[in-house]
Amino acid sequence: MAQHRDIDALIAWLESVARRPFSWRSLHCAAYAAQAVKAQGGGNPMAGIVCRSKGAAHATLAAEGGMEAAVDRRLVRIPPALASRGDIAGVPDDEFGVRLLVVEGATLVGPGVTGAQRLPRSMMTMAWSAMPGGDA
């Protein structure tokens, strides 16, 4: 049976964290992506990605083969042009290779220094379905 996204729950979750700043302990990009997937009715796809500090993030992602490889093992990759609201977007990141954000529509959203940071969808270079098996 196909699982369907709970977009209303996603929107409510995004609103609830809109003013929360980036935090290595609780709201880094992998945690943000995982919580967005969970809000829509999925599980925790980022289990095992421990990023309680910048050093821990580097160590964990090195063991995983990088952020892209870690997410590829946990979610189904889709073409960015087909990513819909709630899917996980990858944008280039100088330090970690890929930064994870959530597709809102024309924008992508993720944790920023003072709260939610939005980027244009055109910055997305890769994407993963938020639903198990890639189902919408």
Quick summary:
With about 140 residues, this protein is of the alpha+beta class. The chain has helices spanning about 5-15, 30-40, 55-65, 65-75, and strands at about 75-80, 90-95, 95-105, 105-110, 115-120, 125-130.
Sheet with most strands: 6 strands, antiparallel
Number of strands: 6
Strands across the major sheet, in which order? 1-6-2-3-4-5
Average pLDDT number: 91
Helix content: 25-40%
Q: Specify the number of helices.
A: 4
Strand % is 15-25%
The poorly predicted ranges are: none
Task: Give a verbal description of the structure.
The chain has 136 residues and is α+β, with helices and mostly antiparallel strands. Helix content is 30%, strand content 22%. It has helices spanning 7-17, 29-39, 54-64, 67-74, and strands spanning 77-78, 88-93, 97-103, 107-112, 115-120, 126-128. The chain has a six-stranded antiparallel sheet with strand order 1-6-2-3-4-5, with helices on one face. A hairpin with a 3-residue loop joins strand 3 and strand 4. The relative contact order is 0.21. The mean pLDDT is 91.
List keywords for this structure.
4 helices; alpha+beta; single chain; globular; 136 residues
Question: How is this fold's topology laid out?
Answer:
Layout: H1 7-17, H2 29-39, H3 54-64, H4 67-74, E1 77-78, E2 88-93, E3 97-103, E4 107-112, E5 115-120, E6 126-128
Antiparallel strand pairs: 1-6, 2-3, 2-6, 3-4, 4-5
Helix pairs in contact: 1-2
